[in-house]
Amino acid sequence: MMRIDPEPLLTAGQIAARVSELAAEIRRDLADDRPVVLGVLKGAAFFTADLARALGMDAEVEFIRARSYSGTESGGRVEVFGLDRLSLAGRTVLLVEDIVDTGTTLAALLAGLHAAGAATVRVCALLDKPSRRKTPVTPDYAGFVVENRFVVGYGLDYEERFRTLPEIHVLA
Ligand code: 5GP
User: Fold this and answer.
1) Is residue 165 part of a domain?
2) DSSP string spanning 53-102?
3) What is the pLDDT of residue 69?
4) Three-class SS of residue 19?
5) What percent of the chain has pLDDT over 90?
6) CATH number of the domain residue 33 falls in
7) Ligand 1, atom 4: closest residue by C-alpha
8) To the nearest whole percent, how much of the chain has pLDDT over 70?
9) Which residues' Cβ are closer than 6 Å to ligand 1?
10) pTM over 0.90
11) Which of 99, 126, 134 best tests ligand 1's pocket when mutated (most atoms within 8 Å of CB)?
């Protein structure tokens, strides 16, 4: 039975405050671009919804799905679903991720977005675990840096559990 640390690592209030700050920064940078806010399911679904609302700007909202297969030797293979039905050529895309860990997923998503012809891609990740990086990618906007610990809540799951928690906890 998996459990979580009862004390949140990040409270709902801390998350909401940081989302507002990120939104203000992004609004300053991308206000003229009518960006496509592109959330990565399922982990970033809640973050994307809150961030998009906080942006208070003319933006479109879309979602794609990424699935990584760990266990393969060469750092894992990533499958991206849903990019093909979007028209991103020439657009400014704000890719919204839950967490950048090894960077494998983000690198694959960036390659996909550039292949789709996006003119500008900015990455906003709620959480960043730089100590785990295997691929040199860095989010343009990062909510919080976290240590090498597995976290759940606010959209992040462990085997589909804990996703609906309003705050972020460390898996015990
Ligand atoms: P990467 O390709 O950067 O290694 O992994 C990115 C994906 O792995 C994230 O989008 C997320 O779905 C999952 N992941 C990495 N670290 C964590 C974590 O601490 N908690 C949860 N729930 N998922 C994580």
Assistant:
1) yes
2) HHH-SS-EEEEEEEEEETTSSSS-EEEEESGGGS--TT-EEEEEEEEESS
3) 77
4) helix
5) 92
6) 3.40.50.2020
7) 102
8) 97
9) 43, 68, 97-106, 150-152, 156-158
10) yes
11) 99
5 occurs within a structural domain: no
Tokens describing residue 29: 């940078």
Cα 63 to middle of ligand 1, angstroms: 17
Q: Which of 50, 98, 101, 128 is catalytic?
A: 101
Report yes or no on 152 lying in a domain: yes
Helix (H, G, I), strand (E, B) or coil at 127: strand
Long-range contacts of 150-153 (CB under 8 A, 24+ apart): 151/9, 151/99, 151/127, 152/4, 153/4, 153/8
Tell me, yes or no, if 29 is annotated catalytic: no
- Split into its structural domains, the chain has a count of 1
Residue 4 covered by a domain: no
In this prediction, residues 29-53 reach a mean pLDDT of 97
Q: pLDDT tens digits for 93-104? A: 999 999 999 999
Atom of ligand 1 nearest to the CA of 43: 12
Q: Looking only at Cα atoms, what is the longest distance across the chain? A: 49
* Statement: residue 68 has pLDDT above 90: no
Instruction: Tell me, in angstroms, the distance from the centre of ligand 1 to residue 152's CA.
Output: 10
Best probe residue, ligand 1, of 101, 135, 161, 162 (max atoms within 8 Å of C-beta): 101
